[in-house]
What does this fold into?
Amino acid sequence: MNTVKANIKNPKVWVLVIGVTVAVGMVAAAETRRRKAKFKEDFGAFVQRFLILPFPQPPAPAAKQTLAGLTFAINDIFELEDYVTGFGNPDWARTHEAAEKTAVTVTALLKNGAVCVGQTVMGELGFGVSGENMHYGTPINPEMPAHVPGGSSSGSAVAVAAGLVDFALGTDTIGCIRIPAAFCGLLSFRPSHGAVSTIGVLPNSQSLDTVGWLARDPSILLRVGHTVLKLNTVEPRRARHLIFADDLFQLSKVPKQKAEGVISKAFENLSGYQPQQHINFGQHISLNVPSLKGFRDQSTKLQNGISNLKALCSAMVSLQRHEFKTNHEDWVKSVEPKLASDVSDNVLTAINTTHENIKALYDIRKELRACMQILLKDNGILVIPTIADPPSKLNSKKRDTVESHNRALILSSIASMSGCCQVTIPLGKNDGCPISVSFITFHGGDKFLLDTVLDMYSSLKEQINFVSNPAPLQDANENFDTSEILKEKGNAAYKGKQWNKAVNYYSEAIKLNGKKATYYSNRAEAYLQLGCFQKAEEDCNRAISLDKKNVKAYLRRGTARESLLFYKDAAQGEF
It folds into this structure.
């Protein structure tokens, strides 16, 4: 164990380096044993672990740091002052100097009180959807240890899924945050393109690259979003309109009826949601993205909608290759890095391909963004499966087929090429595999989408639990006793700091007996812990309407209102 002083400006910190960088070359028996122990300790998620303390809390009356007490990790693609950023490849690390500055996004998190605990493993040079890395080892998927974790932000996803950190940063180019989130059963957020600074982040393809983040808890997902997106806390509430892309669910092994049923049930009891709509998304883009015509495979007899979806995927990959070549051709040719075979194929194809109609690629981006605006307006949410196929097994000789790889990229291409924001939401498991859906909304609708997730997540979890563990039917006379049992379970969950679980129990109690002020007041307290201040205020109002002598409800409502004002002031004065 070594201790070194890091010369990172603002703040100056002590960095505790835990572990040793994996040597390149022949791996001795002792090194093999060491790596096994490392994987047992941290699921192989980290390239290196350290401790970077946050900026000091400013004195009053400055706003409280909104991420105080939270820990996070960063992909090996973010620059840290005085550290070499490895880009997932030892040859890159060997041929580059230490960074002079820390990435803007990382600095913002430190300024807001979060503690950075390490750099995580990623796919080499930002390529690959499996999450494997032949140099640093493949992080172990906590949800399915015998299967790949998804990539390229594999280490960040595993660190969050294993409970090693509260949230983690990664980058998303063509699904690099969304796919590992789906494979590891996590929430993730890919923001609108350009909404989060990429200064200090190594580029793969600038027109597609975004900084994204993963979390287990929707309130943390939102709090990180408020920090890196610099959001206003309060904005007018809009009605929400869900649009299911039926043709995209047909590409996926996610059970559409189960997914749609769970989502529909979760939303039906919430206010401000319009009746859902169904659409053939492939046909929609065929009418509104004319530049895709040049990317259609004329040799196939695919239906027009599917043909356009494949064309969109092809355009995305072409754009990524073109920009990667522009960024890194000289380095690849001069260094000739050692790369895994699939990464090498991607890199060499990019370097050796001459793109004749570059303008058409950028035209497609513009047309698709306008197409999404037509569809979603200012309140629409497109619902799609996040992934098409379950994660493949580690070291499997049967690698993903070209068809399954293309299906995954088709689903990723919508947000990547349009620049719209997308959130990935876990829906439990199906046949032992994590399943998830994604919500996509208009470019710039990041707060609208994050607020939607927080608004519906407790209700969604209730429906997932109900579908996964259906409770026996209760006689009407037993409702009162059952609701009290549920309340006590909620109290126990609350004491155990399991806030979401507490909300779920109180909500079930309210369903059985909606006239009990205590249930609403208790749920309000759990919402306060989650940072759901608007919901807490609504529950307190309901509790007071049922029992005007409920002192706790008055106190909790006061806290909720004070917090709403506090976050509004914090958002205005923070940056």
Summary: Residues 1-32, 473-477, 568-575 have pLDDT under 50 and may be disordered. The first strand starts at residue 2 and ends at 6.
